[in-house]
Specification:
The two termini are 54 Å apart. The relative contact order is 0.08. The protein is an alpha/beta fold and 716 residues long. Helix 1 packs antiparallel against helix 11 and helix 7 runs parallel beside helix 8. The strands form eight sheets. A seven-stranded parallel sheet has the order 10-11-9-12-15-8-16, with helices on both faces. A six-stranded parallel sheet has the order 17-27-26-18-25-24, sandwiched between helices. The chain folds into five domains: 102 residues, 3-Layer(aba) Sandwich (GIY-YIG endonuclease), CATH 3.40.1440; 60 residues; 189 residues, P-loop containing nucleotide triphosphate hydrolases (Rossmann fold, 3-Layer(aba) Sandwich), CATH 3.40.50; 173 residues, 3-Layer(aba) Sandwich (Rossmann fold); 87 residues, 2-Layer Sandwich (Alpha-Beta Plaits). The structure holds adenosine-5'-diphosphate and zinc ion (2 copies). The site of one zinc ion has 8 residues, from loops. The site of one zinc ion has 9 residues, from loops.
Amino acid sequence: MKKFSVLLATNSVKAYQYLAPDDLNLKKGMIVKVPFRSRELFGVVWDESDEELEESKLKKIIEHYPQFIFSERKIKFIKFLSNYNYSNLGRALKLFIPQTYLLEKKKQNFKYEFNSKNYEKVKKTASRNKTQEVFIGNKSLSKKEIVHEAGVSQSVIRDLIKKKCLVPIPFAQELNININNISKVNLNNYQKKAKNKIIKSIKDNIYNCFLIDGVTGSGKTEVYFEAVEESLRDGKQSLILLPEISLTTDLFKRIEKRFGIKPVMWHSNLSKGKRKEIWQDIFNGKSKLVIGARSSLFLPFKNLGLIIVDEEHDITYKQQEGIIYHARDMAISLGFQEMATVVLVSATPSLETIYNINEGKYFRLNLPKRVGKAKLPSIKFIDMRDEEYKSQEWISESLKLEIKKSLSNGEQALIFLNRRGYAPLTLCKKCGSRIECPKCDSYLVEHKYNYRLICHQCGFSIKSVKDCKSCNSKNSLIAYGPGIERVTEEIISYFPDSRVETLSSDNSLKSHQILSDMKNGLVDILVGTQIISKGHHFPFLTCVGVIDADLGMANGDLRAAERTYQLLHQVAGRAGREDRKGRAFLQTYFPNHPVIQSLIKGSRDEFIDTELSIREKNKLPPYGKLASIIISDKDEAKIISFCRALKKKIPLSKDVVVLGPAPASITKVRGRLRYRFLIKANKDINIQKFLHLWVDNLKKPSSTRMSIDIDPYYFL
Ligand code: ADP
Ligand code: ZN
Ligand code: ZN
């Protein structure tokens, strides 16, 4: 027996020692199953641990999986991930081995060949002969195919297998990429230039990070397809990361058409069997092209050559639960570890990415023009202070006229409001009381599609009500403010003869149908939330109306302006994507706000420069570092005393400022109260080290939760 150490895929800080027979050829990175307390757990053979225990105290390994070995590079990435995001190593490893059934043996789908020599020795029957006949011409067939083609029963086949007349061959579901049968567009000169740079990096097998910076509809996707093609030719794996995987049918179809293969989609709705098959095929390098959201970063790629991060600025890349991380940033570090090329893609890049370009860390590839005849839409504001409209109505006369104009040309309109439901607030017109969530400090939002009032923080819901419980008035509750259901109602009242559809995450099951009808010109007006802002190509859409361009600017978050700019730019970019000119209109009460001004002037780079200089002045990211610690508990007294203990232990440093503790702006969520520390540091400070010094050895009441967010994006 010999000793070796194992990092368990569970909440543990260090690797433990185990015993294995001498002849078991265990290698670093190999997945193993070991006993731990009363359980059996999976883990990975790790570096030697410093822990030296007597052999008699050690337990023996249960199983080892020589077909599943994480490479040295992968291990480095796991270490980086855990270190950067302030998580322990075992939890980070758990991301890579999320479920244990992934390691189980795959059900083999065998195909069979017919062995005529052996057949000479057995008694011939009519059905046996029929079976032999379907194999004429050296075919290999699955059981199902034999049943179908020969018209014989399963028992005949079983019998022939027993007599070795039918011999199984493992049947590989290889992706047969016929690279020479690819159908593609002729790239324009900007696209060619961008493509050549990326392809060179892939050929050189080195890490590089590019940004394809191009306006909406400039052919960015076609450029990264070229990169994918190159990586496939090289026999390497490619990963396309998307912010959301639910609405990717378009991309899927495009890839299928262009490459003649179905890409592998990694998402939460896969069956267990499918998940296992995909995971193992990625581990052994068989699957070459994977599309997925955040969690696909942790798939066990064997030979990764290319990572695309589409819509790199999108905030859904920031994972908020479990280990908190930013998928774009982790993708870049994965690319670095794996010596793969990383391609960020956006029409409205994040300030972080622009900063890194300015620093010479990433390379920018410009696509300044829309493809073909398509022109960028014109963007105008509608000053709501000048508009006449009734209370509890949200569509201005000017916007109405513009919608009418498009409809009368046989074109479409898109109305955008980033707020689900019917009304964000229900209040009593007699006593003024508002309906709140009992578990959070937020209001319940009325949803008419299911007649419920729902908390958008925790999902708590009740049936819609009419009578006020506070003052016992009958029928006194009214809806206050707009959600997209209400705006849809208003639109229908103005355009009763048009087909109007609504799209938000509330009815995303119908989204494929609605989007495809919209694409084909069957819908006249589409009303939607941010779900419709990205990626979609609607050829007949010429008028985009933003109901409340000021929404989202007011929440005091450091990225509010940046995010509003990106969102509105994306929404406007849906218009006029073919030869019809697009027009976008922003309803606003603050037409002079820099965000609105930059949008209508099309001065994106100026906007970015101004934002960057504000951040630089205040030493905010990307010029400084931030981290936050959220402490939560049902019992406020416990939080306060724990925060007090924390505050006493803050390490002295002239380069780090700790703000707080203060109640978080949404103080109560799911019945738990939340307090927050904000840590602000200079760029060159190792903020993780500071946190280790500070909180590692602190005693915490078991009911109190503490979560640490490096580079926080949500300040609620
Ligand atoms: P983006 O990703 O920048 O929004 P896409 O790559 O999706 O742009 O291109 C928009 C549309 O134009 C797509 O239908 C695409 O197939 C087409 N397209 C892109 N590049 C070319 C080109 N060079 N020639 C013809 N059509 C192109
Ligand atoms: Zn009341
Ligand atoms: Zn709630």
